[in-house]
DNA sequence: CTGAAAGCGCTTACAG
DNA sequence: CTGAAAGCGCTTACAG
């Protein structure tokens, strides 16, 4: 457990460092049976374990990647990270997790630090505030994969839910059940957070496709803390919605807080579909119909792409947007 | 963005590498104003950023710690990680996240790898299957802090919820509301997962303290997948419970699945308190009374302790168990 | 089949 | 006030 180095092993085994190194890297082609045994024994007896930092310095590869999420507390991010970690683990890569909190300054600091630590690549939920930096990375052929946010200014492979489809699925389901006055509740849409924009788009498109004209009163979009009030405003207008699409899990919580507070019966008073298959969907009263994102598949794909890029900096066709299909899970809330 | 090294900066600025290094490490004591400017300019113009791997090799410190959780998907772990990351970030430390899945083999692999990568310390939710390894680490004065599990065989500082108190709080509340037939539902207790054991203990102690004799039928403990059936067994016995304490968030979900399926009214048919303040507690129908663990404080404390150990391998008094107070959050389910 | 030597990019006494 | 030199612990041609 002390600081046994390769030199110690070499001395103990009576061979040179080079030979020990060959042994460790399993280059046995020309190694004598005897030498091999001696080294094996030395390593065993000294309790030697190689210093990967030294190896990394020489090999210019740390077998470590950085993962920058907005906030690990978001369930979707957690699932993505879990999938990434699993995939990386199989290839003996480790992940450094960073929370950028949607702050471009924090994001930049993390990127700089990750690069300084010589990570082999980065998977990021980009804030949108560091386009130039990412452009530089791309230009330097530094492996980067984006998750859940599109930065159109820069050609970096990006993993996305098909958000238009997610909303459409919700609206279609609602329409099928006979609802026409369908509202969408969303976080602020004046941001670079692609999914919010796309989900609103998908909502509008689906309405149109079903011959329902878009009613601006039915699109509520604001900070989570304000959402309760805004929803109340909507419900106190002359025309009230019959159904709600909650654009993500945190919005759903606000909607549910509202319906509970005002004793609205779901789905009798108001039908409801949430995007994100929340943990409590099936045990809620009533069970919640949701649109699930394939977070694990998406995380896996991100890791797959990144490790691919790390292995060879080419594969031009990889630099697109990868869309993953959301899935409707029908329960009782609509 | 290419590979600018310190040597490049030195040449460009017309000074030696040593001087550049001094500059980077802010040892300005004797540095000429002029030299300083030249270096500043060179770094700026070349876009140099130091290679931390090289520095780490020399300094024998990577400013990186490993965090081994059972599963990042568990909300408690996620919160702990977030707190650790925040605290580390302030001290310019990064965290490598590992999921051991309660598998000692996986845990050992991660520990070995983290050490090979020369992390400065480890925060772990130990599986209990690697006592010897941890003993070795402790012996080598390698900084380790445990989280949420006690390994009594080894004197490593450990951060815990006061689990006995958590259960007591639940039982007391139930008793206060007039319930006497109080059941506890728990995951399997034949493990090293300390909280499960302690919570069952706390449950029993609190019953006794309140003069209620312990009824073995009211202690249901088994795999999550079996829990539904076991709960059903309990409810179909002659004496039925009036109230349930769910020992953690995942158990709570199973209990709720059961009550929903069998149309049990909470709290009329059965009162309920869950340990872990789940995200949907306040919007559930009825809102759920819970016992919250101070996950963020606990994560922060773990990071604080670990960085303390990293800075100086001594402070004997740090090697104890740190208990954090859970909190009762009264809502409608009891 | 194995070893001596150079080098990865830093830091750190030490000399001047 | 600054530089030359050694060294952190590996890997990798290359020589023999």
Query: β content of chain A, as a range?
Result: 15-25%
- Helix run count of chain A: 12
- Strand elements of chain A, count: 12
Name of the CATH homologous superfamily of the largest domain in chain A? Response regulator
- Tally the structural domains of chain A: 3
Under the CATH scheme, which architecture of the largest domain in chain A would be assigned?
3-Layer(aba) Sandwich
Helix percentage of chain A: 40-55%
- Report the uncertain regions of chain A: none
Oligomer: homodimer
Side by side, the strands of the main sheet of chain A go 2-1-3-4-5-11
Q: Predict the CATH topology of the largest domain in chain A.
A: Rossmann fold
Most extensive interface between two protein chains, with residue counts: A-B, 53 and 53 residues
Alpha-beta classification of chain A: alpha/beta
């Amino acid at each position: 457990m002390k600081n046994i180095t390769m030199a110690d092993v070499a001395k103990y085994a009576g061979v040179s460092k080079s030979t020990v190194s060959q042994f460790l890297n399993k280059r046995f082609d020309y190694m004598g049976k005897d030498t091999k045994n001696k080294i094996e024994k030395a390593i065993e007896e000294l309790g030697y374990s190689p210093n990967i930092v030294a190896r990394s310095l020489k090999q210019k590869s740390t077998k470590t990647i950085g993962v920058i999420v907005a906030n690990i507390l978001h369930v979707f991010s957690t699932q993505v990270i879990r999938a990434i970690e699993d995939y990386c683990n199989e290839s003996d890569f480790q992940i450094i997790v960073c929370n950028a909190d949607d702050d471009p300054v924090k994001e930049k600091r993390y990127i700089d630090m990750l690069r300084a630590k010589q990570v082999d690549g980065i998977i990021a939920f980009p804030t949108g505030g560091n386009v130039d930096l990412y452009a530089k990375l791309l230009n330097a052929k530094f492996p980067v994969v984006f998750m859940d946010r599109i930065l159109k200014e820069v050609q970096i492979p990006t993993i996305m839910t098909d958000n238009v489809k997610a909303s459409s699925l919700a609206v279609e389901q609602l329409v099928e059940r006979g609802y026409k006055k369908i509202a969408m509740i969303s976080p602020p849409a004046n941001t670079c957070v692609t999914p919010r924009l796309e989900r609103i788009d998908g909502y509008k498109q689906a309405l149109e496709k079903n011959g329902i004209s878009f009613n601006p009163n039915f699109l509520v979009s604001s900070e989570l803390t304000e959402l309760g009030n805004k929803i109340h405003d909507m419900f106190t207008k002359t025309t009230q919605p019959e159904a709600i699409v909650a654009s993500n899990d945190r919005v759903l919580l606000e909607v549910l807080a509202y319906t509970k507070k005002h004793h609205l019966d779901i789905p009798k008073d108001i039908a409801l579909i949430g995007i994100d298959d929340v943990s409590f969907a099936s045990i809620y009263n009533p069970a919640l119909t949701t649109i699930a994102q394939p977070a694990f598949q998406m995380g896996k794909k991100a890791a797959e792409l990144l490790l691919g890029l790390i292995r060879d900096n080419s594969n031009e066709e990889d630099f697109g947007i990868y869309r993953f299909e959301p899935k409707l899970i029908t329960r009782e809330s609509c």
